[in-house]
Amino acid sequence: MAAEQRRLQPRKQPRQVRAELTRQRILTAAARVFAEHGYAAGTTNRIAERAGISIGSLYQYYPNKDAILAELLTRHLEADRSAETLRHQEEPLEDIIRAFVRAVIDNHHDDPRLLRILSDQAPRSTELLELMAQHQREIHTNLHDLLNNHPEVHVQDKHTATHLVASTVEYTVHPLIATPGEINPTHLEEELVTMLTTYLRTR
Amino acid sequence: MAAEQRRLQPRKQPRQVRAELTRQRILTAAARVFAEHGYAAGTTNRIAERAGISIGSLYQYYPNKDAILAELLTRHLEADRSAETLRHQEEPLEDIIRAFVRAVIDNHHDDPRLLRILSDQAPRSTELLELMAQHQREIHTNLHDLLNNHPEVHVQDKHTATHLVASTVEYTVHPLIATPGEINPTHLEEELVTMLTTYLRTR
DNA sequence: CACAATCATGAGCAATTGCTCGGCTTGTTC
DNA sequence: GAACAAGCCGAGCAATTGCTCATGATTGTG
Fold first, then answer.
1. Contact A171/B176, CB-based, under 8 Å?
2. Helix B17-41 / helix B65-79 crossing angle, nearest 10 deg
3. Ramachandran region of residue B41, left (φ > 0), alpha (ψ -120 to 50) or beta?
4. Protein CB footprint (7 Å) on chain C nucleotides
5. How do residues A127-181 score in pLDDT, each as one tens digit?
6. How far is the CA of A41 from the C1' of D9 (A)?
7. How many CB atoms lie within 10 A of CB B52?
8. What is the pLDDT of residues A26-37, one digit of tens each?
């Protein structure tokens, strides 16, 4: 149904510069508010207030609260180039892993709190789940291919290894970057690369 | 202040068997409801309904919603004995790591969804944060001691390694167990132990 | 069996939330 | 500069939520 498909889509296309600017202000305000208060406590009124616009204007561009989160998530997933880094199977294993780790770190560096909210507190709508599942599937597929084809890789259980490597990078980067000052991102990258590369080489 | 200290504590001590039973029903119902709907959407009325009691009865035992979550978290942390396993520094490294990994897996096996809610969506109250911080500090201290003293350990950056190992176990176990059927817990344990042990031995 | 302590009930209050709608302001077009 | 469109406003509605409190039912005790 058309109504169903448009549940998360923008209400109207901006035609003036002013409007595009307002859209952007809503998005950045939402990102901050969600990061600070979480999804449930990040009220639409607060987002509007933070964006310096009225609540009415907000609903001119987003049909509901979920739609704002959906656009935030979409943009984030689109900006993530980590899956591509896994395709260069002719390079040394360490370089590939490093590129992968670095891509994930970079991608989460803007606002790790927001990212955790996106993945943990996002409403369980079919659309959002499918979007995230597809993204994860791409990473898993590429990683699995890499493990199967790269000459340096010798782990036995490729299936478990794929899951382990993927979630190790994904889930250790979040909390470690989230605690500021505690952990140096460069050190983290170094140790992660060492750990994963060594692991994948073991017979 | 007494009022402040009692914010999360049970409203009254049960004196009859019936009451203790009601308390238990509330807790298990809350665990399920929170796991299903998340913290914010896990309403107290829903919890009461699921427990098969009235909303009034619920508030006889818990002064507010946070208190229920607090007790759930406390029980979970108290059941977690993973920190102790890190103390046996005279045993082979692999055995120690395996015991640690297994303890975490066991502890999260009941309901991994709930655990993520506890750690991610818990209200940012000072009490709860302090409780979790203390638990994490204990693990980090023990792990750091192990890395410093165990003869098999040769990683350079002990600080980063401590954080990396701790959060690798903590955060990869959650999502991997949460996807039922996808990953075999025994395989996960095997690969995790291999990866971490090999990593810690590298010069 | 009386009578008090304990336990259970659930209608409904106060506060909060997502969101609408009618009217206003700013920009565009001819 | 008139007439229309695009964008903006914010009071307030409907729904939901955490939680209270006056009342009634159960249980233990002498």
1. no
2. 100
3. alpha
4. 5-12, 16-22, 26-28
5. 888 889 999 999 999 999 999 999 999 999 999 999 999 999 998 998 777 777 8
6. 24
7. 11
8. 999 999 999 999
pLDDT given for residue A6 in this prediction: 45
From first CA to last CA, the distance across chain A in angstroms is 53
Average pLDDT, chain B: 90
Per-residue pLDDT at A10: 60
Ordered DSSP codes for A25-56: HHHHHHHHHHHHHHHHHS-HHHHHHHHTS-HH
Distance of CA A92 to the CA centre of its chain: 26
Tell me whether residues A194 and B171 touch, CB distance under 8 A.
no
- List the structure tokens of A53: 């616009």
Q: What does the alpha-carbon distance between residue B122 and residue B120 come to, in Å, rounded to a whole number?
A: 6
Residue type for B60, please? Q
Query: CB neighbours (10 Å) of residue A26?
Result: 24
**Of the candidates A62, A57, A105, which has an alpha carbon nearest to the alpha carbon of residue A80?**
A105
DSSP per-residue letters across B4-53: HHTTSS-SS---SHHHHHHHHHHHHHHHHHHHHHHHHHS-HHHHHHHHTS
Q: Is B33 buried (19+), middle (13-18) or exposed (0-12) by CB count in 10 A?
A: buried
Q: Is the pLDDT of residue B139 over 50?
A: yes
| Cβ of residue A161 closer than 8 Å to a chain B Cβ | yes
Distance A139 CA to D6 C1' (A): 42
Q: pLDDT tens digit string along A102-119?
A: 999 998 887 888 888 887
pLDDT of residue A1: 32
Distance CA(B57)–CA(B22), nearest Å, equals: 8
* pTM for the model: 0.88
When mean pLDDT is compared over A11-20, A92-101, A102-111, B126-135, the highest value belongs to A92-101
Candidates B35, B37, B33; CA nearest to B48 is B33
pLDDT of B122 strictly over 90: no
Tokens 């980063």, located at residue: B160
Distance of alpha carbon B179 from alpha carbon B113, whole angstroms: 10
Collect all residues with Cβ–Cβ distance below 8 Å to B16 and sequence separation of at least 6. Answer: none
